[in-house]
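Researcher: Please translate sequence to structure tokens.
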Amino acid sequence: MQLPFSVEQFFGVFRDYNTSLWPAQVFLVGLALMTLAFVFYPRRWSGAVISAILAFLWAWLGLAYHLAFFTAINPLAYGFSAVSLAGAALFFWQGVVCRRLEFRGARSARTVAGLVLIAFALLVYPAWSMAVGHSYPAIPTFGVPCPTTIFTIGLLCLAVAPYPRSPLVVPVVWCFIGAQAVFLLDVPPDTGVIAAGVAGVVLLARAKVAIKPGATISG
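Model: Translation complete:
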């Protein structure tokens, strides 16, 4: 597959993004850690807050990464931006407006899988990037597509059943897009999106429509 940019240009986008937007990366990781606090110390409004954070992260992807930086080397980034914004809208609609997403930790294989993916996105991904010879600022940080996608699916592994399908669609689609970077762009940590994609497909298959008394809701 022929890409419209070189590997050097690809990592150059990360360099420009990280240097231009610092210290936003610290704020984004802080938001990620906040979601875990609301998962394990839940309040009545925790699901809405977590969903709002996920909506913000996907809007950030669409605007602050794809539209502001990645479009400089890849015209498809305009489409990626639109897809990311659609993902943000789904999280906001399903989780904030309709309150159909709740998140809890449990003693289950699904919770373990979710925590492994979250730890991979926040800890293993940057460490692996540096271990294979990429150095900051020319590395993918949390807030760009692949680590954010892995984190999102990890968090959705902690969603309380029944949960709607639609918020899973964009992250799973991005797993298939992002997996290409492993082979075409020398980004071994993106192997994590393959595992996240498998988990996402399982979550999609097991998703059920969240129905409130007296209401009929489509997923």
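Researcher: Any highlights?
Model: The chain is about 65% helix and 0% strand.
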